[in-house]
Amino acid sequence: MGSRGACGPTVRWGLPLGAATLLLLLLPAAAVEKSPGEACSQSTNKTCQECLKNVSCLWCNTDKTCLDYPVSKILPPASLCKLSSARWGVCWVNFEALIIAMSVVGGLILVALATCCYCCCRKKKSRKPDKSEEKAMREQEERRIRQEERRAEMKSRHDEIRKKYGLFKEENPYARFENN
Q1: DSSP states of 72-92 as a string?
Q2: Which has the least CB within 10 A, 77, 80, 81, 131?
């Protein structure tokens, strides 16, 4: 179910999440299920709520008929009832709207998961420097240390020359006059 990408495994949740959404929408209808012996055709020309009390029934809004749901197929065929008129589980949701809503929600979830995976991969990559970055940082530190050593060597050489020619700057330039 998951494919292996550059950043790691990604899971496709669209179909299972859509099925879970459908289950949650239809759960209230399943709680009031009638006895299996009662046929759906007895609820024809009654209300949608009466028909859908039995979860094995499908209400067709165009001709106000209560039909047995074709359990061998996921969606009812157009010859039985158009998707925009078919109701199952609850009367206020038709199959067409349900399919569109589940597609949008599934798409948003996939985009969110892809964004999370992308952000996590970038975060992991930026957190751990690779070997070339470590080498560059080591070389930079070595250059800084050599520069400090050269600077200290040059300073000591300059101080020796200043002492030799009497140009060494003392902390207090008037100290020479006081010692005389």
Answers
A1: TSSS--TTT--TTTEEESEEE
A2: 131
